Amino acid sequence: MFENIATGFELFFTLGNILAITAGVCLGVVVGAIPGLTATMAVALALPFTFNLDPVTGILLLVGVYKGGVFGGSITAILIRAPGTPAAACTVLDGYPLAQKGQAGKALNMALYASCIADFLSNLSLIFFASLIAGLALAFGPPEYFWLICFSLTVVISISGSSLTKGLISGLLGLLTSTIGLDLVYGTQRFTYGNFNLMGGVSYIPLLIGLFALPEVIDFYVRKVAPFTVKAADRSRVTLAEFKGSLLSIIRGSFIGVIIGTIPGAGATAAAFLSYGEARRTAKSPETFGKGNVEGVAASEAGNNGVAGATLIPLLALGIPGDVVTAVILGAFMLQGLTPGPLMFQDNITIIYAIFIGIMLSSIVLLGSGKLAIRYFARIADIPRHILLPIVLMFCVFGSYAVQSQMFDVGVMLAFGVLGFIMMKINMAAAPFLMGFILGPLFEDNLRRSFLISEDILIFFRSPICWIFITITVFSLFVGIRRELRATRAKRDAIRASGAS
Amino acid sequence: MSETTTQTNARKGRRREILFAALTLAASVLFGLFVIPGGVATPASVKHLPLSPAFLPYLLTGAIGIFALIHLLEAIFAPHIPADEEAGALDAHPKWKSRVLMLIALLLVYLLLPDQVGMLVTSMVVTIALLAMGGERRPVILIGVGISVPLLVYLFFTQVAQVPMPLGFFEDWM
To answer: Which region, left, alpha or beta, applies to residue A383 given φ > 0 means left and ψ of -120 to 50 means alpha?
Structure first.
């Protein structure tokens, strides 16, 4: 093993590899920060550049782009409430309120630290537990997935905002919206009304951009004065006490990200929301979440970056891509004449180790390039809002169009922007809607596939994994609802008391 | 805030919540009775209820209806809790109606014009209009930002990100 590691080191330490990973991370951060341009798109764009590179250099370039892209999404999420990537949607919840308070620097730095730590832990998991975790992921069938999604959906309780019932309605509306399109089993149409553009369902990116970024733009023009001045050139930094206070959430979020990332298809967005929900559930003052709690930023960023290294586990260990990005990376491996999977660990172990070393380095590069990006990107928030918001709207339109090169997607973005604005006005949280929309197809697909397998409801209780997820789902529901009801009761008591006095 | 203002706000807030819950409840009933039967094609060969394409929409609509009913009862019988946003809400712009109409018009321009005049020209027009609407009067900023930023963003998307943008009638010239 040590011989292989030494050869891996030798193979990795070339100027080309170090430049590739640095360039990849920097490119990823920039592209990830632009709403509409996702990490997937950045990796796909970088793919042609790997054709003439060494296998290790090419793969490291793509991995760097991927990791940079995941972090980059948080920058605009914090500064202008426009998540650069879907996974950064959860960072909006506390990141943007912090920016509104003039503490964008603190939010951005915490996002970076949490991202780097989570990325590092995720990489360690990839290196040491790849085969073990990959085996666990293989034990997941449709019923296990179904319960995992049910557990993930319980997070809606934590992100419901001021009203639990409204939050639940918002989540259910998101789930309902996800049913639009062709039916997964029978191929019949659902709510498409013959519209070809809706056959594949409502596009994910335009919905995300519309729901989060556009309401801010609309609100600015409807209000008498700009309600908040976001100041990024503040001197707010993460204090040692804040960092220590968030460390547990970062570590927990990282491992949530690792577990979710290992399971193909579960995704970084779900990991971010789960990590956020857990941080809020265990916090001493959960009521501060959603109003600019730096721990909320740390938890969500740890969740989504924890996924980044872990998605490579099923890819490298089993040859199974966990998401679209890893599918593109799988393509890059194949273009280089390498086939990820168990055989690769026998035939190309030195390449594997060289990639592992490069991936470990990517966390450090991410810290450096992230610091640099924060310094320059943070200036965005110093732009007066009447100049900034028309540019934000332009990015929303360009970003939505870029997804499928269709004006229909711009329409989807505008429609969900109006919906998001209405939700903002009636104090209905938009985050549960997004969570429901993302998890909806997985929820339904696994529910129905389970029934197709056995036609018996007992299939949902077939394995210990099912029972583990049933238990934690029930526990999470119980604790979450009890906490929300207690908080509501306390508020009502306070109102009654103030009315009586 | 005086006691009377607080009570008036609470009354308004309660009314708003009742209206929201009642409308959601009505919408869920209409959705269940008309939209799902009309919008979801269910094959006759479906053996089990959960396998039906209409199963989840009905389940979700029912759940929305139930939560709307709970919210309605809560709004009627329990004291109203003002949301944080409600308490700190700023007044609407004095000309908010005309501004909303202008904004809708500009959003429609973004939706309908790119296929005719191209994405670049459309974004320049809308950006300049929004800058003016936001109160910018300096011609250098209006023209400078309104032309240079859309041009740079357009070039980034088309040349770097390789995303083809609509050119409109410029397509024939190029």
So the answer is: beta
